[in-house]
Amino acid sequence: MLVQKTVTSFLNELASNSPAPGGGSVAALSGAIGAALTSMVCNLTIGKKKYAGVEGDMKKTLAQAEGLREQFTAMIDRDTEAFNRVMDAYGLPKENDAQKALRSAAIREATREATLVPLEVMKHCIDAMALAQDVAANGNAHSVSDAGVSALMLNAACQGAALNVKINLNSLDDQEFVAWKSDEVGSILKTSTMMLEETMEIVADKLKKDGV
Amino acid sequence: MLVQKTVTSFLNELASNSPAPGGGSVAALSGAIGAALTSMVCNLTIGKKKYAGVEGDMKKTLAQAEGLREQFTAMIDRDTEAFNRVMDAYGLPKENDAQKALRSAAIREATREATLVPLEVMKHCIDAMALAQDVAANGNAHSVSDAGVSALMLNAACQGAALNVKINLNSLDDQEFVAWKSDEVGSILKTSTMMLEETMEIVADKLKKDGV
Predict the structure, then answer these.
(1) How close are the terminal C-alpha atoms of chain A, in Å?
(2) What CA–CA distance (Å, rounded) separates B190 from B196?
(3) Cβ atoms of A145 and B185 closer than 8 Å
(4) Which terminus of chain A has a lower count of CB atoms within 10 Å, N or C?
(5) What was the ipTM of the complex prediction?
(6) Helix and strand totals (H; E) in chain A
(7) What mean pLDDT do residues A84-96 have?
(8) Are B155 and A155 in contact (CB < 8 Å)?
(9) How far is the alpha carbon of A95 from chain B, nearest alpha carbon, in Å?
(10) What residues does A6 pair with on adjacent strands?
(11) Among partner residues A3, A23, A66, which is closest to B146 by beta-carbon distance?
């Protein structure tokens, strides 16, 4: 598993001349980092007298952020596996028509899966950004910059996953599927951009007002 | 060292109720990930017949990206150390005027350092984004989405580091230093946003044109 590697050796593997892990796994990792930072802000808020009023909310947000972190973490490997399956399909023999048909079907199936993994990452990003916004607005003011970084990592995850959906859609023939998923990507991206802007405004406002 | 931990245990430490590592270290990590992805695109371009014309450029870009990755990686720990020094300074005794003066000076000094580390991350991000843009424009077209994710991670690193500069500037009294560094942050952020837009346009254009 990629996440059992040290950070250094993960980075080495990323930089290497092997195409996986690549941008898709990085998007999932960025999501996991963003969720972890939201959890940290929850943990730095829970138990503080000053924030007793939001303790229940923070505990709920923490549980959700940890759930999303787990999902993002699993998708770091899932994206690389999906990519490898596409490569495997391209490597199938194509010496006669029967083989060619089998190979095409395998490529199509693997590419659809490789499209759906980053699309799932994108959806989780939107859920996680709602939590980042919550901790930016209601969490420990001393950690408001961390809430902002959380939202930035989640938005980068969402935008990065979108590029991976798109590059995979490009090699699919099924125009109905492509149009459907392209629309989905467009609307999720719009939401992510909007949520990031809102959260960054909350953060900027707190950085000014509280002088934290 | 944080980067000697596994990805999973780094994420666990991030999510924990300890304020460091936090957003500052994450910004540096995001920079390292972005630089590593640019290196990957170089490595997937070098040695390919189709890209023989840019081989020299890609080798130079790879060397620079790897140099920046090393610097970003070192700054993951440096940011956490700088934060811990601020906390240590706040923990100094303040029972008499002499102690108070010493404590104030120590806090000021540590906070300045904690401001300069993320500011350095921001500057490295601009250098790295120029490389990401180069590989998006000239690197292997099959990896153009990775070049895009590289730019996204570097921009998130830059914006995230900026929040860490700002939150530290907020607790400094030296108005001249604060104004100077705030200006610097503003102009680097503008550059980062512009470079990201340019790179994302190159990526979108290639995703359309090449049908890669």
Answers:
(1) 40
(2) 10
(3) no
(4) N
(5) 0.97
(6) 6, 0
(7) 96
(8) no
(9) 24
(10) B6
(11) A23
